[in-house]
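Ticket 4471: requesting a sanity check on a complex prediction with adenosine-5'-diphosphate. Repro inputs:
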Amino acid sequence: MTGRVYPRNGATGGASVEFRHVSKQFESQRNGATVAAVNDLSFTVQPGEICVLVGPSGCGKTTSLKMVNRLVEPTSGTILIDGEDIRKIDPVTLRRQIGYVIQQVGLFPHRTVAENVATVPELLGWPRERIRKRVDELIALVGLDPASYRNRYPAQLSGGERQRIGVARAMAVEPPLMLMDEPFGAVDPLVRERLQDEFLDLQHRLGITVLFVTHDIDEAIKLGTKVAVFERGGRLAQFSPPAELLMQPANDYVARFVGADRALKRLAVMQVRELGLDRTRTLPEDAPTFTPETNVRDVLAAILPSPYQAGVVRTAEGQPLGVVTLAAIGDVLRAQASGAPPRRTE
Ligand SMILES: Nc1ncnc2c1ncn2[C@@H]1O[C@H](COP(=O)(O)OP(=O)(O)O)[C@@H](O)[C@H]1O
Ligand SMILES: [Mg+2]
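Returned structure tokens:
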């Protein structure tokens, strides 16, 4: 990673991150006792993945993240980025190549939005004109109008706007890796959902690798390509794709953490094209319509109040593929409960 030349243009993909038996003990300030914040953590995040670290408060998520940019040094074990031991990389150089977004954003209050976003490019000595262009690009990238935002101060922004600028600042040099610590925790649920969607879109376009911390299992399932579930004492309880977490929780702790409404959550990680569609039935014009990619929970929400208790799945071009029914969704839930594969009706 030290050999990279920044900025990298376009979707060049992200870095890989590997934790190898990483542990961190803190000395308690109160009584000098040792606190195991992170305990023998091993997992690998592939380039371009979003790995979400999730678990209750105090289970070592933030500590794990901070070890990646060397704000905290492990007591033992090794962290590798693109196969390189990060102990061999100067911390300041390392941090300039890793985006870091935290909940309170940490925007500099006496610097404008543009100056905040320009922080790292300035440190890297980019020419003025290039910085100016890049700043406007980034403000637009996170969904704000550069002309009306670039000269504002952080106090003149809403919570959601501040989070967006925090993301823009972290993206300034197109880092191959972003660390995000509960970045959307302080905004209201509606704004949070929009920020999550925008973030997914952005990440998808840029292909960067993200380590994302949250205590919210729903956020983890929505955003993660991999989810690392932590339990108290900084131990990794499970590391798997979200669907697997829902289908096959590794133990009772994970099952409880994932929640009693696991069945409904599973629907949110399935696309309607995975269901058996009725290809013979037709529905009136006003029936709900979906694309093959619509998640099954959204399908359920739309067809429950519909008089047809069913909806039409169409390609992006409008070609009908078949009808999805409540019964088909029920089949999937029952099959998952019994461990059998869902019945296909085609
Ligand atoms: N600098 C520190 N000094 C002492 N203990 C710490 C320090 N940072 C974190 N801890 C302890 O390590 C544990 C994990 O903390 P943290 O990683 O912040 O958890 P999380 O982000 O999952 O809430 C907690 O018990 C916390 O009190
Ligand atoms: Mg934390």
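Notes from triage: Residues 189-206 form the longest helix (18 residues). Leaving this open until the requester confirms.
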